[in-house]
Amino acid sequence: MRCLTDAAAFILVGLQLTRAAPASIRGPSSLLGFSESNGVNNENTDDFNHPLADGQGTTNANVGQFLDFSDIADPQPIRGTKGGTQPGSDNDILNKLYPDKVAPPGTDHGGTINAQWSLSKYPHHKLGLNRAGFSRQENTVVMPDATAFAGVQMRLEEGAYRELHWHVASEWALMLNGSARIQAINENGEAFLDDVSKGDVWFFPPGVPHSIQGLGGGTEFLLVFDDGEFSEDNTFLVSEIFAHNPKSVLSQNLGVPISAFDGIPPGELFIFPGTAAPSDIEKQNVTNSNGVIPKSATYSYHFSKQEPLDVAGGSVKIIDPQSFPIADMVSAALVTVAPGAMREIHWHPTSDEWTFFLYGQGRATLFTAEDSANTFDFSSGDVGYFPQSNSHYVQNTGDVDLVLLEVLKADHFSDIALGQWIATTPPQIVEDTLNLSSATVKALSKAKEKQYVIPSSGPVANPIKSS
Ligand SMILES: *[C@@H]1O[C@H](CO)[C@@H](O)[C@H](O)[C@H]1NC(C)=O
Ligand SMILES: *[C@@H]1O[C@H](CO)[C@@H](O)[C@H](O)[C@H]1NC(C)=O
Ligand SMILES: *[C@@H]1O[C@H](CO)[C@@H](O)[C@H](O)[C@H]1NC(C)=O
Hints:
The protein is α+β, with helices and mostly antiparallel strands and 467 residues long. It folds into three domains: 65-102, no CATH class; 118-301, Jelly Rolls; 307-454, Jelly Rolls (Sandwich), CATH 2.60.120. The chain is built from eight helices and 26 strands. The chain has helices at residues 2-20, 92-97, 99-102, 238-243, 247-254, 418-423, 427-434, 438-444; strands at residues 78-79, 82-83, 116-118, 126-127, 133-138, 150-156, 161-166, 171-185, 191-197, 201-204, 210-225, 236-237, 271-272, 300-301, 309-311, 314-319, 331-337, 342-347, 353-359, 361-368, 372-379, 382-386, 392-396, 402-408, 416-417, 453-454. The strands form four sheets. Strands 4, 5, 6, 7, 8, 9, 10, 11, 12, 13 and 14 form an eleven-stranded antiparallel β-sheet that branches. Strands 3-22-19-24-17-16-15 form a seven-stranded antiparallel β-sheet, with no helix packed on it. A hairpin with a 2-residue loop joins strand 15 (309-311) and strand 16. The longest helix has 19 residues, at 2-20. The protein is globular. The structure holds 2-acetamido-2-deoxy-beta-D-glucopyranose (3 copies). Residues 193, 281-282, 285, 287, 291-292 line the site of one 2-acetamido-2-deoxy-beta-D-glucopyranose (NAG). One 2-acetamido-2-deoxy-beta-D-glucopyranose (NAG) binds next to loops.
């Protein structure tokens, strides 16, 4: 009470002061335009410390190596002889994350689409009931040019459900952590039930109703929908189909009294805690006269059990309709890139690429016609997007493995690799076109096979020279 009185008195004093010294919120007309009395202050705007990252000021901007700003307090928009210091308002936390935006390689030019988004940025996480989990999503609201796919990352605690539902888009999923039980029914009335663990994949076609439950220890997974405008807020939920049909109709349709529906949920459950799934999956094996879904049309693929193909600098494994037929237009590659190595420069001739960064950090340059290129930096939990036939690479810029998932809307996984293309072109054409020495062209022509991942070439040492 006493505090309140003091505070009120203080405010009163403040008000009186304001009244006593009549001031305006706007300035006088004497400040307009030139007048000798309005002289300038020559402040030194370069009077601050701005250490540069290794290689930032000492190599030609076109060398464009990765700049590590992690120990730089105040990253500067400087690359080689280009740019200048930044004394003004700036977000140094973001600048450390996006060095290729602050100080782009000299080879960046013009405008491309925005090819990078972090799921931490927007929209807010959608939180499940009673700490059962959450989801977060990326779609055309935040990446307007990423029209082929939208992505959702979802967490379910042990026993928690993603409510029974269906949607207009198809759903392709990669398990990121833990294990889950998934179930569905197809249009032939055939039942599907399986347990999946970290690294496995599932696919539910449009309209197929399904549910997901976290098993022991819970689960986390990535969902990829074949429509960039998809939203988790816009799915058909079992709670809502029950809430929005007349109870007399439900009663007639399902053959139980109206009062049987007295306790149904009033609205969406989405993510909510449940009774732990029985560890014996056969206890939940419910079928009708149509039996279980045949293997040729089944909704899961135990991708975790597929050995990756080791290549210099990392490994690759592909899942596409040749091995997982039900996902007839989703082709994906899970790529591991060792520190310093890179997914080679390539493009996908028939599809846009939607990318998810599972672990580590990397950067990519998107080259697009005409004459435009932008370099983007990525961390785990980020989405990348590279339009059809637009070239890109992904270089590991960290000190642990980079793992990324490339998803295409295609009936098989395919790409064209710059290195293989050039190596398989008659040397005379390459020499004449690129003005390379015949020794260089001879060296290039050795890499005739697709590399997928190129090993680290060691530190860049390239003194600055005028270009
Ligand atoms: C799975 O989750 C556990 C618990 O948070 C974590 O320790 C582990 O690193 C995760 N595994 C992967 C591969 O992310
Ligand atoms: C369920 O039962 C059917 C036979 O009715 C069997 O083919 C199938 O393997 C069982 N298990 C699962 C998980 O579908
Ligand atoms: C070809 O490259 C050499 C240097 O390697 C340069 O001197 C020459 O001007 C270039 N030719 C053209 C046509 O650009």
